[in-house]
Amino acid sequence: MPEINILPKHVAELIAAGEVVERPASVIKELMENSIDAGATSITVEIRRGGITYMRITDNGCGIDRSNIRKAFISHATSKISKADDLDSIFTLGFRGEALASVAAVSRVEIMTRAEDEQIGTHYCIEGSEETLLDDAGCPKGTTIIVRDIFYNTPARMKFLKKDVTEANAVAGVVDRIALSHPEISVRFIRDGKEALVTSGSGDVKNTIFSVFGRDFSQSLMECSYELNGVKVNGFISKPVNARANRTMQFFFLNGRLIKTRTGTAALEQAYKNSIMVGKFPACVLNITLPAGAVDVNVHPAKTEVRFADEKRIFDAVYYCAKFALQEKDTRPQMSFETKAQMKVTSQQMPQVVKGEQIRFTPNEAKQIFTPPAPKTVENVEKKEAFQTFEPVRKPHPIVFNSDNKKQSVVNESDEDILLNRPAKEIKAEPKQEIKQEIIKEEPAPVEIPKEEKQEEKTEPVVTEKEQEQTEANAQYIPEPFRVIGEAFKTYILVEQGDKMLVIDKHAAHERMIFESLKKNVNDAESQLLLMPVTVTLSKEEYNAVIENEDILHKAGYGIEDFGQGMVIVTECPVYLEAGDIPDVVCELAGYLADNKKDLIPEKLDWIYHSTACRAAIKAGDTTTPYELEKFVTQLLSNPDIRYCPHGRPVLIEMSKKDMEKSFGRIQ
User: Fold this and answer.
1) What is the average pLDDT score of the chain?
2) CA-based torsion, 157, 158, 164, 168: positive or negative
3) How far is it, in rounded angstroms, from Cα 165 to Cα 162?
4) Which of 206, 203, 276, 289 minimizes the C-alpha distance to 244?
């Protein structure tokens, strides 16, 4: 049996620190929670290089007495609890006394603090759990903690840190959630010298949501509040029409603490049942308030998972809170129109000019009056075929030459000739010969081409083996003659081909066709530039995943740029997508990339192609013209390899004539 050794103190502290300090974001979380427990009404967070080299947290809380400054950095030293019974009634965010000791064990910490009853503050420095300075300092009431060079003494952990941008986005996510959980506290976040977030601290949750996530997200929410069986739920939930592609924008807080609760998620989504599209999820910022004795927060090291004494009470409170808000405040979508129609300004509509008086126009009036009218366009003629239109172009009258080599216009040309671009009757062969002779005389002397170049001109274009195989394959798969019977339920195409009938699921088939096209053009994705770029609001985890995988998304045909503050701008998308589907697709892709960071790139691309094809494919219930049905079936039957959609469902079912006749008793 190996010998049992007692670990030295500094080794034991490093092991304990691993439970609390994983990255700069976890340091920011612990220190901000300490500031909140200290009664601060204003917190400023500043980081550099993602927090790896520099973090500073400043608050105006109660501060730390000089007599207690050394105790604060001892493991399991806390002012939140004093006996075991206190664990049953925890109202503070921190209570284990591990944060400062764990941070000091793996970094260089400098703290300046002053309590309210002290005249002079305290300046204290500790590096790797070793005290280096304790002195007087002039500072305001509150605490300022500076953390430098995290994991400087543990190189093994340093290797697991991500890029500076990734770590900074993780810190931003922590700051966002704490700001949402405590709208009564003014939070300021400075990232590499630039102010990234400021909340007012007014206590208005809607105002805080606007500061954190922007206008679009805040306007998609509606307020809710409900109390049942001693459980109070209040906050904001999204309107059904603004549902999202995943659950990343669902934030639940318990007594001001961010938690992950399956009970709350299930209750919220149950309230939206039959009011939201399948595959969509509501967003929320909900704070649950209940007695401390009804919940156990000492379950998870990160304190994000809790255990309720009565899960049903929580479920009912969240469910009815969301349900009543949907019934009372969810109105029908309104369509807004311009109040003033663009119209011509006549002399009667112009304001009367009084001598010596200056005419003043509002910006809208000036735009209407002085904007030149748009050029008239030729109306499209009647469609001859679906997707194809043409406009008659009137060409100038052709010029011919008479026998005296004088120009003469064709004057007897009919409108029908011009419309159909028919040759003029007056043009004869003799003038053409004369024109040819005239042109030949003016041509310069021909330049001799070397023999080698002439031989190169005669050579036929080189066809690679791959192109030849592809050409032979395309020529080989010629579909048998078929007849499109029609469409059932605007979903299934009925086709007669030989002695069998085909039933085609148009969505599944179209989805597979788009998927194969995207995979075929993996190195040259067909994309389109958007006339109006689309802004998409994401959670910080999704935002970071999108920024890290810009190259993968670019290969899939998406042009995405960083817009800051958890938002991205989509400037380019695959040609198959419509502009209205872009926000949902980007949210769905971002959620997948955030949850599957270790997947291989081909697997990520396949999933992106799946999602894009599913969104872009024609939907069941969409109206399809006979011309479109004909072209669609031709393209599908020309590729017999298309048998299943990307999700594995069959794209068509065959029914033979013999089986049908057996079903009707025509044959035995």
Assistant:
1) 76
2) positive
3) 8
4) 276
* Closest C-alpha to 190, from 168, 208, 211, 167: 168
Whether the CB-CB separation of 474 and 468 falls below 8 Å is answered with: no
User: Predicted confidence band at 416 (pLDDT cuts at 50, 70, 90)?
Assistant: very low
pTM: 0.64
Write the CA distances from 290 to 234, 254, 308, 421, integer angstroms: 12, 8, 10, 82
Residue 421 structure tokens:
């671009």
Distance CA 148, CA 361 (A): 59
Amino acid of residue 499: D
Q: Enumerate residues 6+ apart whose C-beta is below 8 A from 488.
A: 494, 503
State how far the Cα of 522 lies from the Cα of 529, in Å rounded to an integer: 18
Contact 576, 545 (CB under 8 A): no
- Per the CB < 8 A criterion, the answer to whether 97 and 76 are in contact is yes
CA-nearest of 344, 347, 398 to 373 is 344
CA-closest candidate to residue 248, choices 21, 586, 558, 598: 586
DSSP assignments along 84-129, one per residue:
GGGGGS--SS--SS-HHHHHHHSSEEEEEEE-TT-SSEEEEEEETT
Residue type, position 258, single letter: L
Which amino acid does the sequence have at 573? C
Q: Which amino acid is at 309?
A: A
- Summarised one tens digit per residue, pLDDT across range 179-226 is 999 999 999 999 999 999 999 999 999 999 999 998 889 999 999 999
Q: Which residue has the tokens 């944060």?
A: 99
Look at the block and give the residue holding tokens 């691993």.
Answer: 18
**CA quadruple 155, 160, 164, 169: dihedral sign:** negative
- Give the CB-side neighbour count of residue 16, counting CA atoms within 13 A: 21
3-class DSSP state of 366: helix
Looking at residue 386, what DSSP letter applies? T
Cβ 561 vs Cβ 573: under 8 Å: no
Q: What is the largest CA-CA distance in the chain?
A: 121
559, pLDDT greater than 80: yes
Structure tokens at 567: 């938002």
Residues 6+ apart with CB under 8 A from 667: 658, 661
Beta strands in 355-491 (DSSP E): 399-401, 407-409, 483-488
- Using DSSP's 3-state secondary structure scheme, residue 563 falls into strand
- What integer pLDDT is reported at residue 540 of this predicted model? 86
Paired residues of 56 in beta bridges: 46, 146
Q: Is 58 exposed, middle or buried (0-12, 13-18, 19+ CB in 10 A)?
A: buried
Q: Do β-strands 307-308 and 295-296 pair in parallel, antiparallel, or remain unpaired?
A: antiparallel
Whole-number Å distance between alpha carbons of 189 and 434: 83
CA distances from 267 to 227, 237, 284, 404, 526 (A): 15, 13, 12, 94, 42
Predicted confidence at residue 148, as pLDDT, reads: 95
CB 28 within 8 A of CB 114: no
What is the pLDDT, as a whole number, of residue 108? 94
Q: Which token pair is 281?
A: 């999820």
Q: Which amino acid is at 138?
A: G
Question: Inter-axis angle of helices 601-616 and 506-520, to 10 degrees?
Answer: 140
The vertex-135 CA angle with 133 and 138, nearest 5°, equals 130
Backbone phi and psi for residue 10, each to the nearest 5 degrees, phi listed first: -70, -30
Pairing of strands 407-409, 652-656: unpaired
Q: What is the DSSP string of 18-44?
A: HHH-SSHHHHHHHHHHHHHHTT-SEEE
Buried b (16+ CB within 10 A) or exposed e, 203-225: eebeebbbbbbbeebbebbbebe
Residue type, 128: G
- Mapping DSSP to helix (H, G, I), strand (E, B) and coil, where does residue 276 land? coil
